[in-house]
Amino acid sequence: MNDKIKKAARHVNQSEGLIFEKSSPGKRGFELPPLDVPAADAARDLGASYRRDGVENFPEVSEIEVIRHFTRLSTWNYAIDLGMYPLGSCTMKYNPRVNEFVARLAGIATEHPLQPQELSQGCLKILRLLEQCLLEITGMDAITLQPAAGAQGELTGLLLIRAYLEKQGNARKKVLIPDSAHGTNPATAVIAGYQVENIKSESHGQIDVDKLRELVTEEVAALMITNPSTLGIFEQRIPEIAAILHEKGALLYLDGANMNALTGITRPGDLGVDVMHLNLHKTFSTPHGGGGPGAGPVAMKRILEPFRPVPVLVERENGRLALEPVRRDSIGRVKAFSGNFGVLVRALAYILAYGPGIRQATEDAVLNANYIRKNLEGVYDLPYSLPSMHEVVFSDAFQKKNGVNTMDIAKRLIDYGFHPYTTAFPLIVSGALMIEPTESESKEECDLFIDAMRAIAEEAAATPDIVKTAPHTTRIRRLDEVGAARKPILRWDPLRAIATPQQAELDGAAASQAEKCTPVIPTA
Amino acid sequence: MRYLPKSPMERQEMLAAIGASSIDELFSAVPERYRLREALKLPGPYSEAEIIQYFSERAAENSVGYTSFLGAGVYNHLRSVVTDAIIQRGEFLTSYTPYQAEISQGTLQAIFEFQTLMCQLTGQEVANASMWDGSTATTEAVLMAERVTSRRHVLIARSVHPEYRDVLKTYARNSGLELQEIPYRPDGTLDQAALKSAIRDDVAAVVVQSPNFFGSIEPVSELAAAVKGSGALLVVSITEGVSLGLVKPPAEADIVAMEGQSFGLPPSYGGPFVGVIATRDKFVRQMPGRLAGQTSDTEGRRGFVLTLATREQHIRREKATSNICTNQALCALAATVHLTLLGKDGLREMAHQNLSKARFALDELTKIPGVRRTFDAPFFNEFTIELPRSARMINADLLRDKIIGPLPLGSSYPELTKHALVCVTETTTRADMERLSSALRKAIAQPL
Fold first, then answer.
1. Strand (E) positions, A132-232?
2. What ipTM describes this predicted complex?
């Protein structure tokens, strides 16, 4: 092994087929208590035309096989619990285990959303306290916890703006979006019924305020801004930007994906933001779980409050909490029931653990990003030199001379024991390396990461092929993504599975071939 | 602070390496006048024990000790402890969306298995990696039908979950969709005569739920035949997935939008759950959401990747099929583990227990003078009953016996104020049902 790879070592890695390939009739992994009422006759009670004999090809395996199957699969994943996960914009921080514990308590996990509100006061108090905490953190006046994720929060925010403007007589036509924005922003604006107008960033990567002044007309409903921007740079002129919009009757939407840089330092409400969403699975540490679930609460200024989605959480005169189902001006419901409650529980548990000390988390996140920036500056190209907040964006300009791009570097980072950073985003940086360490990394882990990135830069100069063909140590190599999209195989098919023995043979042959190929990595 | 892995000395060393004299210097980009001068007014810091205490106290203020007969889109089913043990493995819990396939094969293969299970259950050809929940999946299915047909008119059964219809209304209002509700007939299923007269050549989708909100199973094959030829797509919404263990799947539907909460996820006061969209192969490029696909690596070994991403927002931006990014991946994993544990026989047995208990409950309840069954179409584990007076008032009486009674329908269906939706599952014991029966008998017999 390469002696510069300090964090990773070879490890036995179990092979495992699809669960359907292990199935054998008559096995099962779960038993029910015996039926304590007379057995129904399905053919009679449902009618012959509705009755199903069972789900064809459904797996039939035992409990131990289920445990082994999924445990083996789990070992093929990288995770925060294994090490630094520096995906820019994703805020992959530690997910405290106590949050998982409290979300599963009887009386929390067991509650039905339609049960009488008199018997739900505990749930409603949790929602109330989370609302209050998030309002304090954002400096806003009102909030809804209903949206299921950031993108739905964006939609909710834009619908609030639309409803507000409609009430004034004109919903307007356009939403302005900087070219550095997340893809969800333009996709959401279209669902909210708006045309998207992109704004080019100025040479330092900030919003071009003069250009903005020209673009903001009476046709513009809102500007969707991310602050810090996806470059990790704080938009300093945000109060001025807000004033430009407000002068023309338009509103300022903040994509709160990067609140991990601001919490406890400054508040969007104070900066002139009218409405924003929070990604609780980013800033407030609810687990990403391989892609979700999240939650996307939307905080707003008083002017938007009447339009909040129903039901709205209210406090009655007797101090009891209630969900009010009807409000005249509401945009309606965006999701059934009361939001992703279990996610909201975890976010509150996270906030309670810190209290006002949450500022320290922000400080450490920004400290880590700047420490990495300082140590990699000059090794990697830094296209925008304004101060970094919680993340830093480099480009592959130096390495490209040797034919090595950001994706190659990212894949090589895997061999060094790290999850890659975000590649090729934001779109305004050609060959972007977007690095967000979060506050959860120790100095030691940051140093290991810096060493790895420096070693890869050396490799890119001296032996670029090693980088370009990475990763070398994973159980599989780079996958044929073009083939996957051209002839999509999106489910297991028993007819195709007839070829399984051959596939297994192929797998075996390929594996032994891979063994022979490994000396491509310089060994110690 | 226990979550932060740095000593004060390390912080100083790092600041020195950066060349900053204080941490505040790193925030110099934030204009001085907008910086918070005081600490945020937040409760805490709490130790682990205090956090557990806070939430335990809140839990005690909820419905612990009550027996519930609520369903209506959220069901109480048995769950193996194995499911939680698996999804709490850090490798699944604390990993991101599997964009870096080489170190995400665990999540990717599990998604592929989830997609396969959903196809098997629904009788469809392709299913996605998950949506937020059943309500948003149903809405996304309608938006998908709009893209496929380039039409704007939507017919939706009044017997679709009221909150699902509300979500669709919110989305439709701003995207130019016209919604028209189709009434139900006396047996609780869709009024097919009304459907036939409402179908026009500008209809994008016909949306039904089965079993529907009243518990009645819709004749999906007949509906598909009625819709066929009009150019509209038939969207079937399913809130109770366990029904698919015993009830014929909506294979004739063009799009199935399902809530998967019944597959191993707790009620959790309404979420997080897992939405599913399943459809025919030919519509795959109009589907919203992530998809995992099988492929091979440079050495020919089988592996999985996220695929057909040119539909999605991070590539297509304003031209994407949906704005969904974060989905419900961990919930989809829970469903995959749960269904794998149950297996073919377990799911069928669970479904059969639900049907058996619901039949028993119906028989018990309709023995009570003044109680009768509202709709007579076949049902699975939910059915509607008519009471001699307001269901809401009767439920208030049942609470005294520590029973959360069947869901009163009046607030969503003004014509059904005396009607309530009863749900029983395999977790409802015979004794529970007998207790409901006697409490209801007592409540009804009481003079007003």
1. 142-144, 174-178, 195-199, 220-226
2. 0.98
